[in-house]
Amino acid sequence: MGFQRYFWYGSGLYRHFTETIWRPLLKAPARSSVLIFFLLSLIAGALISTRLISEPSVAATSAGTAPITTHTTQVYRSKPHIPVKIPKKPPRKKEFPLNCPAGNLTLTCPIDYPTKFEPEDDARTAANACPDYFRWIHEDLRPWKTTGITRDMVARARRTADFRLVIVNGKVYIETVTKAFQTRDVFTIWGILQLLRRYPGLVPDLELMFDCVDWPVIQATHYRGRRGRNAVAPPPLFRYCGNDATLDIVFPDWSFWGWAEVNIKPWETLSKDLKEGNKKVKWMDREPYAYWKGNPAVAVTRQELLNCNVSDKQDWNARVYIQDWIREMQEGYKQSNLADQCIHRYKIYIEGSAWSVSEKYILACDSVSLLVTPHYYDFFTRGLIPVHHYWPIREEDKCKSIKFAVDWGNSHKKKAQEIGRAASSFMQEDLKMDYVYDYMFHLLNGYSKLLRFKPTIPEKAVEVCSETMACPREGNEKNFMMESLVKGPSEKGPCTLPPPFNPAELRALERRKANSIKQVENWEKNYWENQPKQA
């Protein structure tokens, strides 16, 4: 408007117009009224056009306007005002590192760690669904669904247990029954302590017995089918694996937090190393054979596997090696880095005295996992599907079965790679530590709901916490504990537990697995029937 005012008044034009145009017209006769009206319209139009040009809210499109173009003019239409949502700065995650005092000071459990789980508001409704294998939690707890669990039942599980664990008001108390092999009990307890650090105040009071030995012992035939006065509920006993003939409650094994004695890192670290190790050699460039390295002394079936090794007389497409852990320890574990062992297209998994912790490392290698008929399962392997996640190998004739598997895979490279990738994806996504902790939470939470008594602190039990366990230790034990330490409460709650299987779903799942294995056996049979007979 300042420029317009100067243009008309300050420049002298206004005076010129009034003297040369307006004054004569005012003196003109009435018939000049039409001409006067026309001139007034022109001047008014000029003023309006000047204002439109100089007004920034109209002359230039802004964030709130959008031009609509016609043949000769532009008309501007205002958009509705949408406020810009400025994202809130994510809150800094609270961390509570261990406070390990120097010297031989008496260690105490901290009093400043949160006792209540308080996730962010958005996280309360953002819980995702747990992987499907979580449904087996319902099956493992089914034997006590109608009877519940009494204190007497827990006491009867003590017969083979290594330790008794009690949680009261978010604190953990341990009564050692017998010393477990190596540090299995230590790292199992450590894992439970990390669960409580991850979800403070969420894990309910409970009491349980834990057996760290490999093979399950609660025989189902001793308890199934007995009714009336003779009916006896089985003792609830936690361990690392089970089978179809037993009722032991399956729990994640100690190696998820590290196996100190053989220098195997905690799973969260090792799974990342394996993912990177898979990139070193592409599947097509890997050795086209089946690889296994382990201790054959623990089981006859592993000793039989040694017969499948390549020789002057026969090549079964297997490359089998004996792992000497004593020598490996003396030489600094230079030949046992699991992330460096993903260089073969196929890897063999074979059980030892029972199930083996090696299964998860083999499945994570992008290789086709050749599973020699397993008799045991751990908490996640019931979610594996034959020919989708792994290739089944017949135990009674494993050498011929391995040779066929390798020949088939080398002839069907695309499908073989899909099987390897499906297993690796399962291990990296469905078995990440977030889900390991969530499985522990849902299992312990479901178990506690079955208790028909109020847990109390045993007279001989000792309170343990992360400080009292990690601070006094040295070497791999301390390193792996510090590496796997949950530094603070989770920012979101546990995943959502899926519902139990109904009988029809269980039958369909069992039928699918059996049909897949049968199909492979038929392929193998036809393969050998069509091989030329040796003289």
Structure description:
With 535 residues, the chain is α/β, with parallel strands linked by helices. It is 38% helix and 12% strand. It is built from 18 helices and 13 strands. It has helices at residues 2-10, 13-27, 33-54, 56-59, 121-124, 136-141, 151-156, 184-198, 267-277, 300-305, 325-330, 358-363, 398-411, 413-430, 433-450, 466-470, 475-483, 503-529; strands at 65-69, 74-78, 163-168, 171-176, 206-210, 237-239, 249-250, 287-294, 318-322, 344-349, 368-372, 391-393, 462-464. It has a 6-stranded mixed β-sheet with strand order 7-6-5-3-4-13. Helix 10 (300-305) links the parallel strand 8 (287-294) and strand 9. Helix 8 (184-198) crosses helix 15 (433-450) and helix 13 (398-411) packs across helix 14. The protein is globular, with a radius of gyration of 37 Å. The chain starts with a helix and ends in a 6-residue tail after the last helix. 32% of the residues are buried. Mean pLDDT is 85; it is low at 1-36 and 47-76.
What is the terminal separation in angstroms?
A: 110 Å
Largest sheet: 6 strands, mixed
Number of strands: 13
The SS-based structural class is alpha/beta
Helix content: 25-40%
Give the number of helices: 18
How would you name the oligomeric state of the polypeptide chains in this document?
Answer: single chain
As a whole number of angstroms, the C-alpha radius of gyration is 37 Å
User: How much strand content do the residues show?
Assistant: 5-15%
| Mean pLDDT reading | 85
Keywords:
5-stranded parallel β-sheet; single chain; 535 residues; alpha/beta; disordered N terminus; 18 helices; 6-stranded mixed β-sheet
